[in-house]
């Protein structure tokens, strides 16, 4: 189906003309987009395996994004129509769940129920056995969406890469994902920039290291990785102390980061605004786990931790400097310019 193809962009238009609902009520038909069985299935199909910016809901549009930009890394998320309209897209749903939902939907003919259920079943069977990568970054998913995803994920028998970066996943979602990391085909997961706590990040790191799975989206092909804050898409994002645990897990595994030579974490310190967010290395614990990972890593030759909340003379900064030099690395390749 064109709705579900990974390489097509699907725009969902749920807004209906004035008076449409009243006319449909008189006819005994769906009064809204979501109440229509056909619209529901088409929308569900489009949410299956497309990357985040290829399934867009026009009902989420706002004047700011409409008057600024469709896309582009130079813009903050709230100025980009593609990111505004991608938010809160539902996770893929198993056929059994679709059938259950269809019981509450409206059709012009009752016979259509079995038709659309069959169409979705055929679509799902195709994607679950062929998809190798799922990209759900930046969708503002919370724990509820990830719990739903974790329930259906075992049916995707060939998925080795899962991108959940820049969502709102907390400890409950992390615990739901842990069994999928422990068992199954996953090799690369990206959970950076979520709302994990230290305990849930530590749990995932322990499971991932046991199986040699990445938690930050790294692959063995990566030689230069930039995870900078404070510019473009990252201007309202910064890596947090739990992210340091995920990074440390990847950096300590040669099977994941054995080719990585250059890593930039610059500008991941506190962000301004109504509520300040402290960055990756603002805490001593973050510096400790990163220092230990640096000591274990043998491939990294350049690291930029400028403006990550470490100030000159701090214990955390000294721990990282010591880990860098004690492993025989060139001190000049540890970039640690700080504002403090």
Structure commentary:
The chain has helices spanning 20-27, 37-46, 63-66, 81-86, 95-102, 112-130, 143-152, 171-182, 198-211, 241-251, 254-257, 284-296, 315-326; strands at residues 10-12, 55-57, 133-135, 161-163, 188-190, 224-226, 262-264, 302-304, 334-335. It is α/β, with parallel strands linked by helices. The strands form three sheets. The chain has a four-stranded parallel sheet with strand order 6-7-8-9, with no helix packed on it. Helix 13 (315-326) links the parallel strand 8 and strand 9 (334-335). The radius of gyration is 23 Å and the shape is elongated. It starts with 9 loop residues before the first strand and ends in a 5-residue tail after the last strand. 39% of the residues are buried.
């Amino acid at each position: 189906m064109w709705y579900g193809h990974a390489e097509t962009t699907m725009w969902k238009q749920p807004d209906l003309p004035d008076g449409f609902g009243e006319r449909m009520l008189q006819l005994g038909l769906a009064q809204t987009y979501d109440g229509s069985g056909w619209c529901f299935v088409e929308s569900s199909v489009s949410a299956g395996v497309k990357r985040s910016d290829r399934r867009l809901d026009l009902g989420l549009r706002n004047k700011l994004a409409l008057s600024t930009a469709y896309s582009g890394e130079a813009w903050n998320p709230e100025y980009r129509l593609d990111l505004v309209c991608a938010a809160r897209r539902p996770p893929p749903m198993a056929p059994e769940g679709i059938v259950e939902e269809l019981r509450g939907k409206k059709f012009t003919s009752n016979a259509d129920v079995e038709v659309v259920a069959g169409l979705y079943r055929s679509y799902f069977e195709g994607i679950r056995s062929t998809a190798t990568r799922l990209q759900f970054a930046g969708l503002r998913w919370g724990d509820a969406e990830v719990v739903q995803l974790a329930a259906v994920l075992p049916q995707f028998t060939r998925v080795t890469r899962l991108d959940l970066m820049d969502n709102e996943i907390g400890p409950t979602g992390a615990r739901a994902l842990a069994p999928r990391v422990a068992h199954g085909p996953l090799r690369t997961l990206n959970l950076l920039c979520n709302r994990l706590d230290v305990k849930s990040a530590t749990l995932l790191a322990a499971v991932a290291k046991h199986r040699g799975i990445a938690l930050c989206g790294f692959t063995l092909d990566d030689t230069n990785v930039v995870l900078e804050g404070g510019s473009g898409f990252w201007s309202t994002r910064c890596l947090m102390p739990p992210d340091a645990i995920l990074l440390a897990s990847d950096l300590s595994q040669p099977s994941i980061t054995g080719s990585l030579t250059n890593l930039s974490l610059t500008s991941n310190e506190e962000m301004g605004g109504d509520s300040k967010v402290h960055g990756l290395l603002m805490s001593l614990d973050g510096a400790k786990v990163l220092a230990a990972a640096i000591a274990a890593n043998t491939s990294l030759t350049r690291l930029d931790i400028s403006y990550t909340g470490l100030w000159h003379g701090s214990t955390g900064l000294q721990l990282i400097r010591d880990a860098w030099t004690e492993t025989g690395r060139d001190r000049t390749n540890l970039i640690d310019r700080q504002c403090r």
